[in-house]
Amino acid sequence: MITVVIADDQGMIRSGLRSLLEQHDEISVVGEAVDGLDAIAVARRTTPDVVLMDIRMPELDGIEATRLLLQDLPGTRVLVLTTFDLDDYVFDALRAGASGFLLKDAPAEDLVDAIRTLARGDALLAPGVTRRVIELFASTPVTTVPVELARVSSRELDVLRLLGAGRSNSEIAAELLVSEATVKTHVSSVLGKLRLRDRVQAVIFCYEAGLIRPGS
């Protein structure tokens, strides 16, 4: 069972999302929140697998709520929902630790699939968002090399670069001529050493560290 908390200041939105999700037997809505502070409190009480987080909410916005919530509940995944397809929101939400970003006008099945994706430990960006995020990160000059990279072996660095380029485990295995099991081990090791939550965070790290550039 995938447990979900819905955080949105509009009651009709919360009700609609609950009705949609409760049509799926493997998803259980365990709480609702009306603002960012409430979202943190409800999540602490219910420890959900996934939080659906609106961006614009009173008291505390969804970005800061995500940042604070994940400090207490690192195992919870945050899927940011917004009507605003703006780079700054995507950038800030991902930097805060969100594992996914989806527009509210996305098809219902896309939302359900996104919840399933995050619940199994993967990450997700809405179609079209990835390119703009990459462009935004790429426009920021790299000034220092993160000291955390010293913990990463040369082979793990190869895997990290391919992760940053959006390759799947099977694609990385084919390129490096190793098994998928070996790639999975390397990915887990890299994420652990660099203290990254998931593959989206790995992409962010790669661009901010200058390990890859657009088109690489």
Automatic annotation (TrEMBL):
| UniProt keyword terms in alphabetical order | DNA-binding, Phosphoprotein, Transcription, Transcription regulation
GO molecular function, a single term: DNA binding
The record's section on Gene3D superfamilies has:
3.40.50.2300
Q: Per the database entry, which stretches of residues form a coiled coil?
A: none
InterPro entries reported for this sequence: CheY-like_superfamily, NreC/VraR/RcsB-like_REC, Sig_transdc_resp-reg_C-effctor, Sig_transdc_resp-reg_receiver, Tscrpt_reg_LuxR_C, WalR-like
Describe the location of the Response regulatory domain by residue ranges.
3-119
**Example GO biological process:** phosphorelay signal transduction system
SUPFAM superfamilies linked to this entry: C-terminal effector domain of the bipartite response regulators, CheY-like
The superkingdom listed in its UniProt entry is Bacteria
| PANTHER family documented for this protein | TRANSCRIPTIONAL REGULATORY PROTEIN NARL-RELATED, TWO-COMPONENT RESPONSE REGULATOR
Q: What is this protein called?
A: Response regulator transcription factor
Species of origin reads Nocardioides zhouii
